[in-house]
Design goal:
alpha/beta; Rossmann fold; 3 domains; four-stranded parallel β-sheet; 16 helices
Length: 466
């Protein structure tokens, strides 16, 4: 563990306390501004000194909730997870305040202060934590607090990791060696590197490595006090927690397909219904404008409907705003068209062209901003699709899937998903499947919220869009 990581982790404690106290003081001060006193005069007699005597210990209670939630771990969590835990910790403390207020009305007669302190505490803590992360990443760009890592495995994932760390020094790793295998010679090289210039971590990026090699690398990292990481092969095993059964006095392990079984499926369906209804109502005026623009430029059908493969391999009518000329689908199998324009996904189940001549001017605008996807809200409402999930593909594309790739048909397809917020059309098919597999095996309600929040940003910055 780098000293810089320990230093930044320890800084979180005083920064959180400062943010909580500052938020509580700001909430008290806001209540006495002319803007709010003109709406409702101050009737309570709680002095600032009395108020301060209450919030100082309550801030410590909040930080205790933070610690229980894992907000003071050395390795930082993903920002989405951190935000969730901050909200939970602050909300728990507010519940304590409300309990105190119930038994002692003399202390907390102002509901405004409680509400403002809740909102401001969440904002102040999150903002300070983000600023600390930005500062830490900035230092890493100058080589401060960066871990030296060796990658073992000259595979696709190994090469991608090397490129990523080179392009993103803020991630905190710099690659000092990239070896094909863990041989006796490479072991001596790593040992020399550890002794002379330092080696903090080893990443195994070879899914075909033997058990003997994996054990040898693990022993080396234990003895030399290095961090051991590995890039797991997509199909090497499930990341889901196994379910234990006992039959005939024998332990039997069940490997679940996805957390979207049972209550997960019920929650997701209720979320889809509520969200799709809201989105349909919000976008209704926009839907009418888009339909009018399509008809004016290229008279004909407003919608494009083709079968897509959904959950369990069942086909359903897929709906989008028409963004291409008539008979566009037939051109993808026309020899003359293919000879002229080709297929950028040749050799995979997909057909893609970056500059597709079949797309109309209105269609190009709709695609750039993903507005052609709006009619799919109706498919979500009626249960053919979900808001978040794997991208639905054509039957002829699914027919070319390899056996393991058909796992993406385990759940309903989605309007947006891991692939859409991680590169969209720029991803190759294997990467898209890998992301969909991760989603299926690691689904959670919060993951859906994170993907849904990232989707507008992916659209706004046209990340990977054609």
């Amino acid at each position: 563990m780098k000293r810089a990581d320990l230093a930044f982790a320890s800084l979180l404690v005083p920064l959180d306390y400062f943010a909580l106290i500052a938020a509580a003081m700001a909430a008290y001060s806001l209540r006495f501004t002319s803007l709010f006193t003109s709406i409702k005069p101050v009737l309570f007699g709680l002095t600032f000194e009395q108020y301060l005597g209450v919030i100082l210990p309550l801030a410590l209670v909040t930080m205790l909730m933070f610690a229980i939630s894992g907000l003071y771990v050395i390795r930082p969590r993903r920002i989405a997870s951190e935000v969730t835990r901050v909200i939970a910790g602050v909300s728990t403390s507010i519940a304590v305040i409300l309990a105190v207020a119930f038994f002692s009305r003399a202390l907390f007669e102002s509901r405004f202060i409680v509400l403002a302190a809740w909102i401001l505490s969440i904002l102040f803590v999150i903002i300070l934590r983000i600023l600390l992360r930005v500062f830490q990443r900035s230092l890493r760009r100058f080589g401060i607090g960066v871990s030296s890592v060796a990658i073992i495995g000259k595979t696709k994932s190994g090469n991608e990791l090397k490129r990523f760390f080179a392009a993103h020094p803020g991630a905190g790793y710099t690659v000092v060696a990239h070896l094909a295998q863990f041989t006796p010679d490479s072991r001596e090289r790593l040992l020399t590197m550890k002794r002379n210039q330092g080696l903090d971590a080893i990443i195994l990026a070879d899914p075909d490595a033997s058990r003997v090699d994996v054990t040898a690398i693990k022993v080396f990292t234990d003895v030399e006090h290095c961090t051991f990481l590995y890039s797991a092969d997509l199909f090497a095993g499930s990341t889901l927690k196994p379910i234990m059964h006992t039959f005939a006095e024998q332990p039997v392990i069940e490997v679940p397909k996805t957390p979207l079984d049972g209550w997960g499926a019920i929650y997701k369906r209720l979320f889809d219904i509520a969200a799709s209804l809201i989105l349909i109502l919000i976008t209704l005026p926009l839907q009418l404008l888009i339909a009018l623009a399509i008809v004016i430029e290229n008279p004909g059908a407003v919608f494009f409907s083709r079968p897509r493969v959904g959950q369990g391999g069942k086909e359903f009518p897929f709906l989008k705003f028409r963004s291409m000329v008539h008979n566009a689908h037939a051109l993808r199998s026309d020899p003359t068209f293919l000879q002229t324009y080709g297929n950028e996904r040749e050799g995979t189940p997909l057909f893609k062209l970056q500059h597709d001549p079949r797309v109309t001017r209105v269609g190009k605008f709709l695609r750039a901003w993903s507005l052609d996807e709006i009619p799919q809200f109706y498919l979500v409402l009626f249960g053919s699709m979900s808001l978040v999930g794997p991208r639905p593909h054509l039957p002829e594309e699914v027919a070319l899937y390899k056996a393991h790739q058909r796992k993406v048909l385990t759940i309903k397809p989605g309007i947006t998903g891991m692939a859409q917020v991680s590169g969209r059309a720029a991803l190759d098919f294997d990467d898209e499947v890998r992301l969909d597999m991760y989603y299926i095996e690691n689904w959670s309600p919060w993951l859906d919220v994170v993907i849904a929040c990232k989707t507008p940003l992916a659209i706004l910055f046209r990340s990977g869009a054609y």
